[in-house]
């Protein structure tokens, strides 16, 4: 998560990273106070409640011996640098990134029908129900107008149109007696709340609160009441640099920015740190179960209620998170 300059109460991932770089003597101490001096740039922004498994930052540093080991020595267990690659002089991790993949982990009872399925941890997702979910998720593929899936954008705002490359739900698995599933979505960029609302609408349809026709209607000009799924479970999974890799990945000087050689490390990190945190928090706080109980108050047949229109004005509603962020509770 990006730094909160001037706040000593809450340490972010970037705070920890910069401190570790200074302690490992990879950057001068004054660069930690002014990150512009080392041309620091994160690829994607993650907000409160949103984790990251495959984030990239770009910066200028001193190439000391055993750099990764020395920096990781100064990082807490939940933060780890997995790789280091030399890039072109003008490389900017945010601007050069051409796609981002997020995953969303949720208990499968989220897809239980409100009238005739179990609503608890004993629920197991059937193959037919999984196929139904995947058919709905696949309909997001392509370019659509997502003005109803964010805050502060009108239907004729060109920036509300976003391109989704793929979206699907993987096979479910059981942890601590509760069945979970992971949904993945890859797109060029995402707006604030967009992914959580995309998932929230599919859940509302599968549970029997909204008709399937609402998806097409939500991409039209009218305002539609789209529920926003909880922030817990949303993770920045992978950032993609396909155009950069095609141009510079085989030039003999630079390496392609790919994840193949560290996939096992990334999966191990998810299994050790990310999945257990999501599962433990869901079981203890029941954030999904609590949110599901709010679905009946949404009006899926008419235009949006004032609840949705006014639900998020703690930030400037015109903010456009082209960096690929889907906000957490702090939005």
Short description:
The chain is an alpha+beta fold. 29% of the residues lie in helices and 15% in strands.
Distance from first to last alpha carbon:
14 Å
Would you list the SSEs in sequence order as H and E?
Answer: HHEEEHHEHEEEEHHEHHHH
What's the count of strands?
9
Give the overall shape, derived from the CA principal axes: globular
Main β-sheet: number of strands, strand sense, barrel status? 7 strands, mixed
The overall pLDDT average reads 85
Low-pLDDT residue spans: 304-324, 327-331
Helix content: 25-40%
Computed Rg: 21 Å
Structural class label: alpha+beta
Strand content: 5-15%
Number of helices: 11
Blueprint (SSEs and pairs):
Elements lengths: L12 H11 L5 H5 L7 E2 L8 E2 L4 E2 L8 H7 L19 H4 L2 E9 L19 H12 L3 E4 L15 E9 L3 E3 L2 E10 L6 H13 L7 H5 L15 E7 L1 H7 L14 H23 L1 H6 L13 H4 L22
Parallel strand pairs: 2-9
Antiparallel strand pairs: 1-3, 4-8, 4-9, 5-6, 6-8, 7-8
Helix pairs in contact: 1-3, 5-6
Q: How does this structure look, described?
A:
With 331 residues, this protein is an alpha+beta fold. It is 29% helix and 15% strand. Strands 2, 4, 5, 6, 7, 8 and 9 form a seven-stranded mixed β-sheet that branches. The longest helix is centred in the C-terminal third of the chain and has 23 residues, at 263-285. The chain is globular and about 60 Å long. The chain starts with 12 loop residues before the first helix and ends in a 22-residue tail after the last helix. Residues 304-324 and 327-331 have low confidence and may be disordered.
